[in-house]
Amino acid sequence: MTSQSNDSVHAQMRQIETGQTGGVARVEQTDLTTGDITELFVKLAGAGDATATLRVPAQPDAMDLAIRDAITGDHPALQVGLDPQTGQISAQTPAWQSAMRGLNAASTGPMSHFAFWDQRLCAVCGDGPDAKIVCAQDDGQVHEIAASALRLGGRRALTHMQALGPRLILAVGDAVEGFGLFALSHADGALTLTDIADRGAFRFSLNALISAACQTDAGLLLGTAALGTPRGAVGHWGPELILISADGTWDLVMGQPRFSPQGLKLPASALTPGFGLPGNAAIQAIAQGMWQGHVQTFVAVQGFAGSPPANRDDLRPELLEYHGAVQLFVSADLQDWAEVPHRLPADIGCISALGVGADALLVGHEGFGPHTVPLSHVPLP
Amino acid sequence: MSVDSRLAGLKRTVAELLSGEQTTETVGAAQRWIEARAHLSSAAIFAELQRMISPRGLVEKSPTNTRPDALARIRDSFPDAVFLHVTRHPRANCRSQHSVYKDRGPEGDQAFDYEQHWRRRNRLCLEFGATLPASQYMLLHGEWVFEDPRTVFAQISEWLGLRTDDTAIDAMMRPEDSPYAKIGPAGAFGGNNKGFMANPQLRAGRIPKVPLAGPLDWMAEPAAGFDPKTRHLAHQLGYGWDDLPVPQDDNIQEVV
After folding, report:
1. pLDDT digits over B192-248, tens only?
2. pLDDT tens track for A270-325
């Protein structure tokens, strides 16, 4: 075992899955000296405290795998992973291993995102004009479609891929045009890729990218990252919340009223973008869970702390630059939002995941050190 | 521009509202109506006009009101007013302005910075919009109105709480039916956009695409391209090199 200094390992919370009796968190650790990336699985008690951790080595033995399976056993979303070193999919559960093999065999380059969708395991291979979307079924049957409509490459990069009923939703970030939202559907044995909204859902460059996504009872709730100009954008700006319904249409939950090719969009919330505060900021994470006897939606908003973009044409926005001031909000109906008070430190880094514990909001963020679990608790009153 | 010509629009409006027509005689009556209220502010007269047409609403579209003091006065006098910020691609706007003003004055318009003018006006509108409740300010690409007017008119009507049925939208498609879609009578000559009065039909069609990048060819010594500040604001407003909604109907005519 090699010793590592705190400064040489960057830890980023990637996923928090919670249930009635606790949960599991997945942390990505990057050795800043070698560039090697490893995963840390953390078992959480009901209150959100870490009760066991496993750092999965590059070559896990049988016991490593058994411990990992024991920790993630109740959370299927954690049982398939994307190896950041090889860009290949790994599946722990036997049910997905055939699909995994089909996907890995069909990939023509490193995969960047994957998602479960309608009994399929899907991934995007490549990050340029030749990228393709590959979907594998549990019987090993594979379908693929060119992703040229996404216009990946240059300043455009895939940021999210998530299932919503009969559609697989894909979001592409673009700091000049604004993000693009697409839906993949399946009919007659073929995959079809269609637009849901382009050009930042008609808010253009202010909606630079989709920065958070969460399955909710109402549909897929998306958070945006707003990115103004070097001199500061003017007008109503700040990030928005957008809801994609099961029928594939989108609407505004919180944001700027506007005309659009998809109809007049008036937000459900009376708040202006950025929960009433204009500025470069991102909805960093969204989670839904039970609190005070109701299903509640929690949102983490964080300010931009990087260098202002000198030239948007060359820009590929990095979410890690949104590590400024943190605000947390909660709503039971997506219309009325209340701020959740917190004492999170100013240097918490980039927030990247939220989870709802028994009596606390679990906030996943950045940290340094090989044994660091970058997770903070915000008590819920 | 003389005071008389600046009042032409007001005189025509008052004549139409008082008498139901715009003639030399009714404009004379309108002139007297205005003189009797010379002690009132513009806002008070506007409010009186509003009462005359209630429950319908007035539309004020004077480009000269895109000044901070004028916009603030409008907002303060009519706190429930809604504002529609209509934009145009900076290149098309600068070229158009240049073509209108290039022959004015002994030196033409060479000293005028159309690019900065576009930037200032749009920044002003955006900054002003941020002082309003979100539902009272909307941004609209002027190009989109020509590309897909029925969709745009329906959405504007929905925003304003007006009718959106086909009959209402059909009427909006015929601006030539407006009593103001013609040259005013003697005593109120003008009072509207000259181009509109000369050709008031709606010319729906595809707008030729113009790029954001490229030399500013209307200038005597063309700059290599727009200032970065202009490009950033253009991006915020949704203008790039491929920046217009794709029209649904491929048979529509191009509008220049």
Report:
1. 888 899 999 999 998 888 888 888 988 877 788 899 889 889 999 999 745 434 334
2. 999 999 988 889 999 999 999 989 999 999 999 988 766 666 665 555 667 888 99
**Considering the entire predicted model, what is its pTM?**
0.90
Cα–Cα distances in Å, from A280 out to A57, A236, A238, A277, A307?
Answer: 38, 11, 6, 10, 11
CA distance A360 to chain B (A): 33
Residue among B83, B89, B232, B244 with most chain A CBs within 10 A, to mutate: B232
Residue ranges of the alpha helices (H) in A165-238? 199-202
**CA A118 – CA A125 distance, rounded (Å):** 19
> What is the rounded CA–CA span in Å between residue A158 and residue A172?
4
CB contact under 8 A, A231 and B152: no
CB A20 within 8 A of CB A82: no
CA–CA separation, B42 and B118 (whole Å): 27
Confirm or reject contact between A267 and chain B (CB < 8 A): yes
- What CATH class has B3-237? alpha beta
Cβ-nearest to B138 among A258, A263, A270: A258
Residue B231 in contact with partner chain A when CB distance is under 8 A: yes
- Using a CB–CB cutoff of 8 Å, tell me whether B249 touches chain A: no
B251 pLDDT above the threshold of 60:
no
Interface predicted TM-score (ipTM) over 0.95: no
Q: How many residues can be counted in chain A?
A: 381
Sorted by sequence, the CB contacts under 8 Å of residue A22 that are 6+ apart come out as A43, A44, A45, A46, A51
Assess A280–B contact: CB distance below 8 Å, yes or no. no
Q: Is B236 helix (H, G, I), strand (E, B) or coil?
A: helix
Q: What are the tens digits of pLDDT across the range B160-197?
A: 999 999 999 999 999 999 999 999 999 999 888 888 99
| Domain residue spans of chain B | 3-237
